[in-house]
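Hey all, quick one. A colleague (J.T.) asked me to put the manganese (II) ion job into the tracker so the inputs and the structure tokens live in one place instead of scattered across chat threads. No bug as far as I know, just bookkeeping. Sequence used:
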Amino acid sequence: MMELFQEHTLSALQTLLQQARKIAVLGHTHPDGDALGSTTGLALYLQRMGKDVTCLYPDTPPEHLDFIQHPSVPFLCYDTAPSAAQKCIGEAELIFLVDANAFSRTDALGPFAQEARVPKVLLDHHLNPDSGSFDLVFSTPEISSASEVVYWLLKALSQEDLPVDIGSVLMAGMTTDTNNFANSVFPSTFRMASELIAAGVDRDALLQKIYNSYRENRVRLLGYMQYRELHILPEGAAYMVMTKDILHRFDVHEGESEGLVNMPLAIGSVRMSILLKEEDSYFRVSIRSKKGTSAQNCAQQYFHGGGHENAAGGKLFIGADIARPEEAPAYLERVLKAFLA
Ligand SMILES: [Mn+2]
């Protein structure tokens, strides 16, 4: 973790911050708890420095994570406010990308950010950062979450404890990305949690909001998928396909199938689990694996994606990778057998 914050990169960041008044903080497509926590925590801190900060997301965050978005932090989503989002990036004097390894992870926002002739800073924890597109890079996969990267960075910048509201959103982001301390946890992660609880962050309240505040349909959807739609291959793979029909039937909102892909890993013989979710021209692919099997390699080889060693994602294009949506299971079985052979 220490190499993340070398003296000269920290002071280079201080200089960039002194020179900028308007700052855009970009999060990735389909923002999750870590994307929201890390961008919101950073934005709150920058606001306290007197900056004019806006968070930008390619699409609207799921409603059950609304509590992470602090009321004093303005944000724009490209799906509902494309021209305002574009204008905001155009006017920014400094751009942050947080919790993503490249601007391509911000879909339509990416080209505007890439073209902007202002300094750009990357804060991330995914593999293969696109370092060439940034003036400063703070990125390591040896850290639990982007929220944790932001936590240690802000502590290094301010040299003191963070206010509880900033600590709370960072704790929320870290908790969701580690699946409540189940994966990608390092000694520094427990240190962060311990410091934040000591500083007054209400972890119990956060856990209620993150894990026990869903609509009834989520619980029924998860039950249905595991009972009816879970396929297990003898090679040690499990997969589920959430078709448009299922998404409509259960009225699934963004974020409501969160965590489903992890569940088949509870089976001893399953080394890797894949969840496909149908969109208009492609399936969104989520992959989780146990130690020793690489979700990242599978995402890269077969699904135009990447991520972390044991948690990755990508896309399966209808019309390119497969001709029709109905062919998704056959494609999955073919590549999973090849990958796990
Ligand atoms: Mn993350």
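Adding what we noticed when we looked at it: The chain has two domains: 2-211, 216-340. The two ends are 35 Å apart (CA to CA).
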